[in-house]
Input
Amino acid sequence: MAVDRLLPTDESIDLLALVRDLCEHELAPHAAQAEESETFPRDTFRTLGKAGLLGLPYPEQYGGAEQPYEVYLQMLEEIAAAWMSVGVGISVHTMTSYGLATFGTDEQKDRLLPDMVGGELLGAYALSEPQAGSDISSLTTRAVRDGDSYVLNGTKAWISHGSHADFYTTFARTSDDPKHGISAFHVPGTVEGLSFGAPERKMGLTGSTTTLVNYDNVRIPAANLIGAEGDGMRIALSALDSGRLGIAACAIGLAQAALDVATSYAKERQQFGQAIADFQGIRFLLADMAAAVESGRATYLHAARRRDLGRTFTREAAIAKLVCTDAAMKVTTDAVQVLGGYGYTREFPAERYMREAKVTQIFEGTNQIQRLVISRDLLRSV
Output
């Protein structure tokens, strides 16, 4: 069932029609098979890139669509509802481009950004390490200045698009200062010394490849430093605020898809001479699912509108990520319950939605970390 969206402009309404057409014809028909075979949908990202969907929030002068986050996130939700791995991939790519688009020099933006947001290239966000997840200050990948270059050594973990990305926004230590010794770099995917681990064998999002990324004397131009040396933590945390909104929108897209499957099934499945949708127990379950989806959508839109107005939104982004991903886990689990035994089979997508929902509570900051962000902000403002 199509979501009745409130969009701010005629242009965004036209964009919604384009996205829905692509979802219907290019995404949804291929999602189940690609997830089953664990096939990375690189050609799908090219198709979406040509349609302008890999640079939605970025300036037109660099090849983006210059859409407000309020619009970008609703388009992302539509895509995630059709194919979660692709929705998450667009969110990752958008976050990967954020550092250079926001903190880069004019020269860097002119040189690099058009290819990054114009649709041909796909990015990866290389922050986490085997022993450094939410604790960014403990990362050990190091970048050493050598003339007009930096030489990078270390290993990144849990990197979406690993081995498939065309560029990696990489965070590495340039000094031993825990908070101010981290810097950000634009690393091309073809550079010598870059290698990848075997794809992780995951519960869900199996169409989205996740690997280790190894840097073995990777040499890049000093001109690929994003911001100043030591700005890396500030850039990473700022990008994560926006990235968490992307994950929130994807989670609600997944929950909406699960609600649609459950509602359709409940109207068709007959028991005791009537559709199971006629039983109050099922009706109340569907109502609670709908309330969770609508509530989550409201939280991410509220945060997006604050972002579009230039207001602070760190707390609101954390709330949206927490509420939306918890909603996705609950709604997808309840969808399996509505379908009963069929929900536990691969004949219907409900079990896949449930498996895909779990990771949304984990990546880009676990929901325990979101609670930490929220509480710190609350106590800081008292």
Remarks:
- The CA atoms of residues 184 and 234 lie 10 Å apart.
